[in-house]
Amino acid sequence: MKKQHIQTLAIHAGEKKGKNTDIIQPIHLSTTFERNEDSTTGEYIYTRAENPNRIAVEQKMASIEGVKTAIAFASGMAAINALFDTLLEPNCHILIPDDCYHGTRQLLDNFFKRWNVQSEMVDMTNVTNIEKRIQPNTKLIWIETPSNPQLKITDIEAVVSLAKKKAVVTVCDNTFATPILQKTLEIGIDYVMYSSTKFFSGHSDILGGVVLTNKEDEVSQSIRNYQKMAGAVPSPFDCWLLNRSLATFPLRFKAQCENATTIAHYLITHSKIEKVFYPGLTSHENHEIAKKQMKNGFGSIISILVKGNQEKALQFTSKLQIFKHATSLGGVESLVEHRRSVEGINPISPENLIRLSIGIEYIEDLIADLEQALM
After folding, report:
1. 173 assigned to active site
2. What is the mean pLDDT of residues 269-298?
3. CA-CA to 358 of 20 to 30 Å: which in 2, 244, 252, 328?
4. Is the domain of 123 the same as that of 270?
5. 34-77: per-residue pLDDT in tens?
6. For residue 346, what are the domain limits?
7. Same structural domain for residues 103 and 214?
8. What CATH number did the domain enclosing 111 receive?
């Protein structure tokens, strides 16, 4: 057969083939499996090492991404930690975006300081800024594009070209774009990670993360070994839920992106809004780069600056009725969050910044809710 569309792969990739098999994969809750007569081998041995539900969902995520290897973790943070633990070393240097997810920053600050890892925040909207900050001990360039929460755009192709010249490893947190909009490994990124809690799950009921790569080397095997030996694995039930959720991921995400585009254009003309951050708007400073590397849309996350201070921003969130004020994103329901309130020590988001995660509700109802909250 010809190469299948992502919408088909999201349903059928990772299925066990053969007659008399379950149409829907059963949940394999067993922690241990019977071995062969030699007492050392079997298709599965122990769930921390591998489990049928985890193998199936890893195969599906690899097929959706179009790559060789997917390694599933218990959370997005577990996936990030596995990459840091494998790719970094004592006294090394790492470049991260100046608008980086606060969990990534805190992980480096709280746990990798003992290795004397120097993490440096850089405005990655211009590759020249990155080139100026690369040092002899730089081991990793960590990209978020679009970034969280100001949706800054990094030119992936330019960063890959620079990193290869300098022999520096690249990782992209592609959670906001998903593989539907952006195939970072095809552009040349070494490793891509996602919080599968977000769009892959889509129902705000699963924690998970995943690292994907086309590399089949010692480093990639070390990431797989970290997953198994550190026990940072998702449960069979979470894998089963994620496998089921991925079947509707392309349809859900398409509806979310369409809603977000309409809302972004509505908000940009509103008198109570100071600024709208959305790469699909021609007013976005890196719209042309986003258009070059993001296909099929620009995502479903919008950040806004409400005119006024933090109090005005929180007044707006308190009036919303359909949008729920909560952490996280990517679910079928629309969420709103005041980012500075949740960034912990050394917050970097403006006090009047609000992040909107657009769901699949009827678009006119969402706009009516925003309109009444901004009155």
Report:
1. yes
2. 97
3. 244
4. no
5. 888 776 667 888 999 999 999 999 999 999 999 999 999 999 99
6. 249-373
7. yes
8. 3.40.640.10
102-111 and 76-87 are packed helices; what angle lies between their axes, rounded to 10 degrees? Answer: 50
Domain count of the chain? 2
Q: Amino acid letter at 229?
A: M
User: How confident is the model at residue 19, as a pLDDT?
Assistant: 66
User: 354 and 226: one domain?
Assistant: no
Is-above-0.85 flag for pTM? yes
Instruction: Choose the final residue of a domain: 193, 214, 246.
Output: 246
Q: Which of 99, 173, 238, 369 is catalytic?
A: 173
Whether 101 is catalytic: yes
User: How far is 93 from 137, CA to CA, in rounded Å?
Assistant: 6
**Are both 232 and 151 inside the same structural domain?**
yes
Q: What is the mean pLDDT of residues 357-375?
A: 98
Query: What phi and psi, each to the nearest 5 degrees, are found at residue 353?
Result: -90, 130
60, 99, 101, 139: which is the annotated catalytic residue? Answer: 101
Catalytic residue among 105, 198, 339, 340: 198
In terms of Cα–Cα distance, which of 231, 178, 224 is closest to 201? 178
What is the mean pLDDT of the segment spanning 2-26?
86
93 bridge partner residues: 118, 138
